[in-house]
Amino acid sequence: MDTTTQPSPLEHNERGAGRYAPSPSGDLHFGNLRTAVLAWLFARRTGRRFYLRVEDIDTQRSSVESARRQIEDLAALGLDFDGEPTYQSDNTSAYEAALRALTDRGHVFECYCSRKDIQEAARAPHAIPGRYPGTCRDLPDGERERRRRELMAQGRVPALRLRAEARRWRVRDGFLGDYSGEVDDFILRRGGQQPDWAYNLAVVVDDAAAGIDQVVRGDDLASSAPRQAYLAHLLGLPAPGYVHVPLVLGPEGRRLAKRDGAVTLRQMRADAPVAQVVSRLAASVGVEGCDSLAGLLEEFEPGAVPREGWVWK
Ligand code: GLU
């Protein structure tokens, strides 16, 4: 895979766009807000449009109320977006079309495994940790029929997985450089009683439909980028350039979480004006003594963003 054909996320592109894509499963905390601000800074300083997409396909964890509060918080911080927020739950026909295109080309198979089946297979001596072991990839039709009926009798449907032909894929990342990672037979649509669309499929379809050519997000998602770029390739869609930014860490060195104290914007605003929160966010991306987003945009330098996790204090 030649990454030079992928857009450079750090270069100016007035026809391009960036985005922030939170999952509405709780209030945004300092780490989420910092990623949102970084995504906004990268987009705006390179002349790109900037969109807000609510990633609410996980019906168990998403809520309308949480989306509303997140949008309110981003506005309170002063971030501006182009157009209205979009919701993944409104876009399921596009996911269906993508799934159909993949199915027509033989890139999809049904998987009947439970989480436990996969964990057990992954303990086999030659298994690669975290990788789908391929249990259902090459089952004979009769066996598929039997396993499908078994699930249906329990009111469940099989998961749908990608039949990946590549083992690795390379992406272009403004921070990590040319980044190559593993591709496996990842899930496209979840199974069970609630067949939700899977994150990787939805992200790829939505980013391409919105003309997103710059994806700035936390580096916990870096290992998803090769899968997503490979899926874009199979669908004949352009892959974006990425900037995976280090996360904010809590006092114990783990990813910042709500248990680490008054970390949500709402909690912080109870003690301090928004300008003070902006000033902490600015310091965390390498700009001291700046308490407005407009000022931050002027002074921001990608090279000054700490490349290690930033510890919340
Ligand atoms: N919705 C994901 C999250 O909140 C982010 C997905 C992405 O930026 O690609 O972690």
UniProtKB/TrEMBL annotation:
Q: What cofactor does this protein call for? A: Zn(2+)
**Which ranges belong to the motif 'HIGH' region?**
22-32
Print the keywords alphabetically: Aminoacyl-tRNA synthetase, ATP-binding, Ligase, Metal-binding, Nucleotide-binding, Protein biosynthesis, Zinc
Return the cofactor note field.
Answer: Binds 1 zinc ion per subunit.
GO MF, one annotated term? ligase activity
List positions binding ATP: K258
Signal peptide residues are: none
Locate the residues binding Zn(2+): C111, C113, Y132, C136
Glutamyl/glutaminyl-tRNA synthetase class Ib catalytic domain: residues covered: 19-267
Briefly, what is this protein's role?
Answer: Catalyzes the tRNA-independent activation of glutamate in presence of ATP and the subsequent transfer of glutamate onto a tRNA(Asp). Glutamate is transferred on the 2-amino-5-(4,5-dihydroxy-2-cyclopenten-1-yl) moiety of the queuosine in the wobble position of the QUC anticodon.
Q: To which protein family does this belong?
A: Belongs to the class-I aminoacyl-tRNA synthetase family. GluQ subfamily.
UniProt cross-references to NCBIfam families, sorted A to Z: PRK05710.1-4 (NF004315), queuosine_YadB (TIGR03838)
Protein name (database record)? Glutamyl-Q tRNA(Asp) synthetase
Organism of origin is: Corynebacterium mastitidis
Per the UniProt record, the lineage of the source organism begins with: Bacteria, Bacillati, Actinomycetota, Actinomycetes, Mycobacteriales
Q: Which gene encodes it?
A: gluQRS
